[in-house]
Amino acid sequence: MGTTQKRHAPTILQQTGWQRPFPQCICQDLKVLQRISIYSFDLSDRKFRDYVAARTGVVYDYGTPAQIAERIDFYQNWSDDDIRSRPDFTYADQTSVSIEDRAVWIKIVRISRGKLQDCWELYQNHQARVQPRQRPMFARAA
Questions:
Q1: Fewest CB atoms within 10 Å of the CB: 27, 32, 120, 125?
Q2: What is the extent of the structural domain holding 54?
Q3: Does residue 12 lie within any of the structural domains?
Q4: 100 pLDDT higher than 70
Q5: Is residue 66 over pLDDT 50?
Q6: For all residues of the chain together, what is the average pLDDT?
Q7: Where are the beta strands (DSSP E) in 19-134?
Q8: Residue 34 near residue 114, CB atoms below 8 Å
Q9: Rounded-to-integer distance, Cα 116 and Cα 3, Å
Q10: Paired strand residues for 39
């Protein structure tokens, strides 16, 4: 299964048939999350990363700015084939990742990307509903 990063991805409902039981529900079904293959989330958006952290407890902003940029690149741009074959896919201590472990990583990344896309849908809907605060208007008493 390949992955595709697009500007606008089909909804999770369109991609998987899964429907939220209530509007702000985050998908917890790992099989559904793995079936999501078209993404439009933007991890370079700091407010989105904060939203993900608040909703899921998963933090992408740890480490140096270079490590954060590397993490963003990995989740947004690396394909399953990259994980399967790139020699620079290593553990933090720079040891190589076995073929068996790479297969597990592909599942983990698919689930993570599915969760990110799920949060992106909710974040986009949330952003659309947030209106700038306006000054209250009061009528003058006669």
A1: 125
A2: 27-129
A3: no
A4: yes
A5: yes
A6: 86
A7: 38-39
A8: yes
A9: 13
A10: 5
